[in-house]
């Protein structure tokens, strides 16, 4: 039911050198192994979800509407002492319509030792399916004795999700409602060669500007730096604090003065 | 998303001892996109009478013009400055005239009686049902959050400083949970001698 089927007699059949490697164990896990109960009376899953949790639902706080800003970019080290790699940055707001249901969501999920996924869309869908891919990656590494490539993992992810096409799953990887604003900053300030410090502040700044314009994004900016050797998680930085620092930097007058009255 | 939360915005009014406070956020949006961060929803009607207009911004602007028109006519005819309660009735009549095709805006009136300096606060729905509590009223996308938090901040017989603190803190707490409002707030403290306007620093996300 849950996950792979594994027969008792298939276990531990290979010796230390792997000479008698059982051919059946080479089989990759097949997607579609999960069984989810369907809504009653033959209702269509997508229609059911939309009727109760969609935009027309009267239960506003149950609506699946999640604003998000997440981004990732690759860069080369600028000097000897920089390491380069990938910067992944996200906001931390969970919202249902205009209601902010959480201010401290961790939207960077671990997929494997050297991989992360960022979540946008339905939080439960994202978390569950990232866990599924995580399991696949672990099994792959045990079976193949080599780390899984990012493209292989994402192909598996895509295939699993395709199996649920038309059933109303909401999983979006690496974008979100505020991403257009983030692109504006990234397109302006991105350089292929950057120092680690520079790259991280670019990631944070892009998230900050996106949270400023997008009502669906906000909270703190969580950041992960993936280097060729390891993955470093950085603690969240308040985006509102970042904005006031930015306003100070460009010398913007933050005080609002009513023109009339 | 409903038309009432299309542009977002929140207004809160609190009554104290011979003083009232009226606070508004500064955001103007188009659904989830923030367009401006300098749009207050509180407007001056006379020396000590202010009106707040939340809901759909375009309708709020139109309604403000119509309110100004009726209020000016009243003041010219009567040759005295308008009482907040009279203004509320005028706005209510205006709103009800559009009973079968209403403006998508909720008005709020806060002020002191120009003669007796008695505090007056009230809020209306889109078709002019006046609701006059003695403690506080809120309208807009963050009204639910405001009413909850104001319940614990409001005390009987607050002076103007205490009232400002209660209003500002209630407003800031509500803005933490309402995505459609925020980006700064402005608080008007109306006492019999003067009106104090203060901008408060809020989260910018």
From TrEMBL, chain A:
Any Pfam family the entry gives: Proteasome
Keyword Lyase: no
GO molecular function, one term: endopeptidase activity
Coiled coil (residue ranges): none
Keywords from the UniProt entry: Zymogen
One GO BP annotation of this record: proteasome-mediated ubiquitin-dependent protein catabolic process
InterPro entries referenced in this protein's UniProt entry, alphabetically: Ntn_hydrolases_N, Proteasome_sua/b, Proteasome_suB-type
Annotated GO CC locations: cytosol; nucleus; proteasome core complex, beta-subunit complex
Assembly mode: The 26S proteasome consists of a 20S proteasome core and two 19S regulatory subunits. The 20S proteasome core is composed of 28 subunits that are arranged in four stacked rings, resulting in a barrel-shaped structure. The two end rings are each formed by seven alpha subunits, and the two central rings are each formed by seven beta subunits. The catalytic chamber with the active sites is on the inside of the barrel.
Protein name stated in the entry: Pbs-5
Native organism: Pristionchus pacificus (Parasitic nematode worm)
Phylogenetic placement of the source organism: Eukaryota, Metazoa, Ecdysozoa, Nematoda, Chromadorea
Gene transcribed to yield this protein: WBGene00100247
From TrEMBL, chain B:
Gene3D superfamilies in UniProt: Glutamine Phosphoribosylpyrophosphate, subunit 1, domain 1 (3.60.20.10)
Function according to Swiss-Prot or TrEMBL: Component of the proteasome, a multicatalytic proteinase complex which is characterized by its ability to cleave peptides with Arg, Phe, Tyr, Leu, and Glu adjacent to the leaving group at neutral or slightly basic pH. The proteasome has an ATP-dependent proteolytic activity. Non-catalytic component of the proteasome, a multicatalytic proteinase complex which is characterized by its ability to cleave peptides with Arg, Phe, Tyr, Leu, and Glu adjacent to the leaving group at neutral or slightly basic pH. The proteasome has an ATP-dependent proteolytic activity.
Protein's name according to its UniProt entry: Proteasome subunit beta
Assigned protein family: Belongs to the peptidase T1B family.
InterPro entries associated with the record: Ntn_hydrolases_N, Proteasome_beta_3, Proteasome_bsu_CS, Proteasome_sua/b, Proteasome_suB-type
Localisation per UniProt entry: Cytoplasm; Nucleus
Alphabetic keyword roster: Cytoplasm, Nucleus, Proteasome
Principal location: cytoplasm
Pfam families for the chain: Proteasome (PF00227)
Domain of life: Eukaryota
Keyword Zinc in annotation: no
Assembly and oligomerization: Component of the proteasome complex. The 26S proteasome consists of a 20S proteasome core and two 19S regulatory subunits. The 20S proteasome core is composed of 28 subunits that are arranged in four stacked rings, resulting in a barrel-shaped structure. The two end rings are each formed by seven alpha subunits, and the two central rings are each formed by seven beta subunits. The catalytic chamber with the active sites is on the inside of the barrel.
Gene Ontology annotations of biological process type: proteasome-mediated ubiquitin-dependent protein catabolic process
